[in-house]
Amino acid sequence: MLSENVHLGNNVQDMQTPKEHTRKEILQAARDEFLLLGFEKASMRTIAKKAKVSTSNIYNYFENKEHLLTEILQPILTGMEKAFVFVSRPDYFEERFTDSFDTWKERFNTALDYVDKNRDEYVLLLLKSQGSELEKFPEQILSRLTDINFEQYKTFKAKNPHYKGELSEFIVRNILSFFLNIFVQMIRQGISKEEMLTYEDSFLKFIHFGYKGSIASDLS
Rounded distance, CA 11 to CA 16, Å? Predict the structure, then answer.
C-alpha cells in the first residue's frame, strides 16, 4: 500500500510539473513585456504569444493583467511588509534617535543592497506600473511611514519632555519623502550601487544630524 501511495504521489507531482512550468513561462513573458512597454500598454495577447500559450490559457492561471503584475512583484511587496513590521515597533523611533551614524549607515546599506538586487522589480513598480492598482504605491508607502513615525515621535516626546525641538507631521512626512526619494531617484536615473555609495555620507549626514537637531534643540 505504501509503495502504491508513493507511486501515485509521484504521478501527481509529474502531472503538476508542466502546469508549474507554464505558469513560470507566463510570468516571465509578462515581466519582460511590462518592463518593455509598461503595464498599461502591455497586451495579454503578446504575453501569451511569448509564453507560447493561448490567451485563454493565461486565465487558467491568472485572473487578469493586474494579477500577473502583483504576482511578479509579490516577493518585494512581501519584503516591504516585513520592513513595516520592523519599523512599527513602538520603540523604533527612540532607537533611531539614539543610534550612531555608523548604525544608520548599516541600515541604509542593507536597504541599498535589497533595492539593487531587485532593481528590475523596482523599475517595474516605480516606473512601469501606471494604469495598475500599484501606480500609487510610493505615495501609499510614504503615508503609512508618516503615520507610524509621527505616532512614535509623539510617544518619544511624551517620555522625553526635556527635548525642546518640535516636529510636525508635515516635517516628518517631508524628511521621510527625502529618504525614500533617494531610492526612487536611484531607480529613475539608473544609478549603480557603487555610485550610490559615494553619495551616502552626504545625504545620511543631512538626515541623521538634521533629524536629531530638530528634536533635541530649541532653535527658535
Answer: 9
* 53: DSSP letter: S
- For residues 48-79, one letter each, b for 16 or more C-beta atoms within 10 angstroms of the residue's C-beta and e for the rest, the string is beebebeeeebeebbeebeebbbbbbeebeee
Cell matching residue 40: 498599461
Residue with cell 507631521: 169
Coil, strand, or helix at residue 113?
A: helix
Q: What is the dihedral of CA 41, 47, 50, 52, to 10 degrees?
A: -160
Using the structure block, give the residue that is written with the C-alpha cell 487558467. 60
The model carries a pTM of: 0.84
What HEC string does 94-108 produce?
A: HHHHHCCHHHHHHHH
| C-alpha cell of residue 148 | 507610524
- Work out the number of other CB atoms within 10 angstroms of the CB of residue 9: 10
Residue 145, amino acid: L
DSSP conformation class of 1? -
SS3 168: coil
What tens digit of pLDDT does each residue of 103-133 get? 999 999 999 999 999 999 999 999 999 999 9
Helix, strand, coil tally for the chain in percent (to 5): 80, 0, 20
Q: Mind listing the pLDDT tens digit for each residue in 144-175?
A: 999 999 999 999 999 988 888 888 999 999 99
Q: What 3-state DSSP class applies to 193?
A: helix
